[in-house]
Amino acid sequence: MKNILISSFIFIASFGIETAAQGFSFYDEVSDGDLSDVGSTPTSLGSLNLGKNTLKATFNRGSNPDPDYFTFNIPQGQVLTEIFLKSWNTSPFFEDIAFIAIEEGPSFDFVFSNTANSNPAEGLLGWSHLRSTQVGTNKILTEMALSNLDPITSGLNIVVNQEADNNPYTPEQIAQFPSGVTEDQLKQNLRNLGVIGTSGSTIGWFPGATGFKLPLGPGDYSIWLRQGTDTEISVELDFNTAKVPEPNNLFGIIITLGLGTLRFKKK
User: Fold this and answer.
1) Per DSSP, what are the bridge partners of residue 103?
2) FRET pair for 195, CA 20 to 30 Å: which of 17, 28, 57, 243?
3) DSSP bridge pairs for 73
4) Distance between the two ends of the chain, CA-based, in angstroms?
5) Helix (H) or strand (E) holding 235
6) For residue 155, is it left (φ>0), alpha (ψ between -120 and 50) or beta?
7) What is the pLDDT of residues 69-84, one digit of tens each?
8) What residues contact residue 241 under an 8 Å CB cut-off, 6+ apart?
9) What is the pLDDT of residue 73?
10) What's the mean pLDDT in 241-264?
11) Could you write out the DSSP letters of every residue in 92-123?
């Protein structure tokens, strides 16, 4: 019930926020330069424009590490409603589950702590395991917002099990799997995202993040993209913003949410 109400609020609230068709910005590492590899000096993307803001990035953490750090500002009067994953590409294709994390402020000073009895995500505002099964969805921002909750409370375990059960890989992708990698192994990696991770592991849910309410409000934020092998991952992300609802619109959202909740209880 709690998960349904959270999802309903996010869904309904999006209808009460006015968007602008003209708002747009674009950053492509190929033409605009490699994003910073250093968290203390992330690449500044400036203020997000109202509407869609697109980022194309490629990153890895292999023998020649290339993580990506960047920072942006959400202006007053606007909110971030989506981090929408438009594409995911690797060569050869591999569900090399990556990591995306967000901090408040113009720099990223987080360092993983995998010692015994630690909270590995402590210091992060939020995080999500970046993966091909997020393509075409707003799962990233939602999972970031709820990353302070264990996977059962947030519903993450249901999400990743559904992804694995829905045969997410095409025959063309399966044909590109590296030698020794099977479809069942990659599906199990997805399922493992919904269990609590152990010290030193790279897959699983980890405690410590602060979490936040959706949509994400004005301010400076920094993001880290990383993964753990030589495989390069190229992604296209849309950071979609909208105007803060006017008081009259907000009242309408509250009324709609109340009616929706009553309808759910009646059913």
Assistant:
1) 222
2) 57
3) 47, 220
4) 13
5) strand 233-243
6) left
7) 999 999 999 999 999 9
8) 23, 48, 49, 50, 51, 53, 74, 78, 79, 80, 81
9) 96
10) 58
11) S------EEEEEESSS-------STT--TTTT
